[in-house]
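Justification of resources, computational component.

The compute hours requested in this renewal are based largely on the per-chain cost of generating structure records like the one below. Each record pairs the submitted sequence with a full structure-token output. That output is archived, and it is also reused by downstream analysis tasks.
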Amino acid sequence: MLIKSFIDKETIRELLIWSETQNLYRHTSLGRYGFFSFLDELNNHPKCVNLIRQKCSNLTNAKFVEPIYKDFVNEIFIGGYVIEHTDPTVNGYKHLRCNIMLQKPQTGGQIIFNGKPVELEIGDMFLLDTSNQHAVSTVQGLLNYKTIVFGFLSDE
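The structure output for this chain reads:
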């Protein structure tokens, strides 16, 4: 499910400024030149993080925070990508992810969901069930791909 303008420009700016003060490169994504850090590893979260998480939680009717990948900030550098994959889940639950675009490269950096590209603009959110195949196409241009991602478990 794609939701346009899920967060506003002021919130995006606040998250980008905050993310620049953090070490986002603690874990390597599946692919090339992609890195992420769990939100609980990062410091001084802006207040908007909890508000966005709640907005996502309300939308998903989620029961729990997804315990493996939780919530994270993701950055993929120019030339990088994420390979097609599915994510693990807790038996009996759907693993749902709310991917919110904070910075978009000039070319590439598209979420590929079930083999089809999803066209996100800055501030848009894509909600996906991670039992489906998903990837990120090769990032090209001058800007890196950057998202904030919230994970949930749902029994619906």
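The mean pLDDT is 93. Helices lie at 9-20, 48-60.
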